[in-house]
Amino acid sequence: MGSPSPERVAGQPIGRLVVVGVGLIGGSCALALRAMGAVREVVGVGRTRANLDEAVSRGIVDRAYTLDERWTAELAEAGVVLVATPVAQVAPILAAIAPHAGGSTVVTDAGSTKQDVVAAARAAFGARVARFVPAHPVAGTEHSGAAAAFESLFRERTTILTPLPETDRDAVDVVRSMWQDCGARTIELDPAQHDRIFAAVSHLPHVLAFALVAQLAARPDAADLFAHAASGFRDFTRIAGSSPEMWRDIALANRGALLDALAGYRAMLDRMAAAIAAGDGEALEHLFARASEARRRWQAGVLAQRPVDR
């Protein structure tokens, strides 16, 4: 049996998808594409054999390689290569991919930061960076690994594409179609704009959740505190159960925008602390009311969204 066609034709499935990092994101993408009949074969690449064996046993991938095996031999005939590793690993992975990817192969990523990924892609691919499409599927849970993957993860969620000025439009179309086949809406943003936005609405909340749990856990009365924590604490800190490695990498990769977001949050905390110290209930209620109304408007908008036609 011959190799699948590396190029994706409109309306036809990806011949070979290589997923580097078969965890929640990469594994869920593969499962969704399989469910839609949008891929013929999936090759998995990762750090640990145990996770890859889980991916094979669940039917996420057809075959799998650890990073120290000959996985790059699969790239020449790949239609799409999805790099779904923690962001600190993206640069060396792209450097390993570059000499072996086929001329028509489209390479994309799934990282939560984009300017660092764009810089890594330019360094790795040079003039061939036109076949690289930076992307960020805005979906996830606090769980990780192939065991956490499920095919509906991206349904009615958004995937952001941040193509470069020189990115081939047919490569963008391939990646857009891939994520739409997973059930996602797709939009395009500038990489710097993307990083500013997600520093505020994603990276900052994760840092805050980790910080609160770490601060309470360090107190001598931590056992009593956690024994009495209820649903509010559970909901606020759910994301503190996320991968420490992944969020370490994201925080450092987007440090400039994240530090700006932290400074803004610290200023708001100072305003609230001043109101509490002064016994200024009116000022405190005003701040709370503005936040509550903004939350209601946001939630109403989220509930009103409907999936676009694919």
Could you say what the CATH topology of the largest domain is called? Rossmann fold
Oligomer: single chain
Order of helices and strands: EHEHEEHEHEEEHEHHHHHH
Q: Please report the number of helical segments.
A: 11
- Residue share in helices? 40-55%
- Mean pLDDT, to the nearest integer, reads 93
Please give the alpha-carbon distance between the first and last residues: 32 Å
Q: Which CATH architecture of the largest domain?
A: 3-Layer(aba) Sandwich
Q: Which class of secondary structure composition applies to the elements?
A: alpha/beta
Looking at this structure, what is the CATH superfamily of the largest domain? NAD(P)-binding Rossmann-like Domain
CATH class of the largest domain: Alpha Beta
Name the overall outline. Answer: globular
Total number of domains: 2
Rg over alpha carbons: 21 Å
User: Main beta sheet, described?
Assistant: 6 strands, parallel
Instruction: Give the amount of beta strand, in percent.
Output: 5-15%
Q: Which strand order spans the largest sheet, edge to edge or round the barrel?
A: 3-2-1-4-5-6
Uncertain segments: 1-6, 306-310
Number of strands: 9
